[in-house]
Amino acid sequence: SADAASAFGSRFGFTRHYACYAELANDPEIDVVYIATPHALHHTNARLCLEAGKAVLCEKPFTLNGPQAHDLVQIARERQLFLMEAMWTRCLPAFAELRRLLLDGTVGELRFLTADFGFHKAFDPRHRLFDPALGGGALLDVGVYLASLASMLFGRPEQIHSQVLIGASGIDEQEALLFAYERGRFAQLTAAITSATPHEATIVGSAGSIRLHAPWWKAASLSVTPAGQPSETIAAPYLGNGYTHEAIEVMRCLRAGALESPLLPLDETVAVMETLDRLRATWGMRYPGE
Predict the structure, then answer these.
(1) For residue 240, what are the contacts with CB-CB under 8 A and spacing of at least 6?
(2) Which residues are catalytic?
(3) What is the pLDDT of residues 46-96, one digit of tens each?
(4) Alpha carbon of 115 to those of 100, 141, 160, 214, 253: distances in Å?
């Protein structure tokens, strides 16, 4: 509302605020819009901004499903606009270190990933996490982090297997995922919104392992353990609360005239959403309107 926007602007010192999203999207002095509304609104909100000629950084999950993700990418490419999923982990210093270590072959050929992301939230059918209409459930809220990490390491899975707990409101409250890739590689992933997990991630190669320190999705350090050798800890502190780095990456891309970030290409974002669609299809779980 206009009153809420005015109050928020006054509290944080913003001189410009709006009573609706369309006003923001049509402001000619706005260069890029960060979308952090509930999951089910991402596609509509991002489309509004793209159609108004704005660059967009859209929170994870990028959309509810693969077709919506493909639609946004198609519009951005047709209009030559920057678009990026706000998977902020990709932009953190720890993940830059991880990519460097893998590129250098420090732990040999990648073999498998084990990772978890779960927290405990008491059941509340009115909360967005448990509301199918808002894209509730563990998969879109935290599972997407796991799927994106696996994608960064191995690409699109050849096979997917899972075990899921569907709760009283019809959404997934927890799941165990096994993604299989060529040459026997795999990712073993656990996601939950009703159970707290250790928040650990370990990447294992033929010549050692790398551990992203908990909570792995915003790790400030990581450990490298070459086979038969002591572990080495690498400090990788991040700025602010961690989100700073994705803002820096977006501005770097805009200044360079890039239409997408090499840290998370748009085709990969779409592929991850399609992988999540494959999982939901095996569960028989659909969101309203699909």
Answers:
(1) none
(2) 60
(3) 999 999 999 999 999 999 999 999 999 999 999 999 999 999 999 999 999
(4) 20, 15, 16, 10, 30
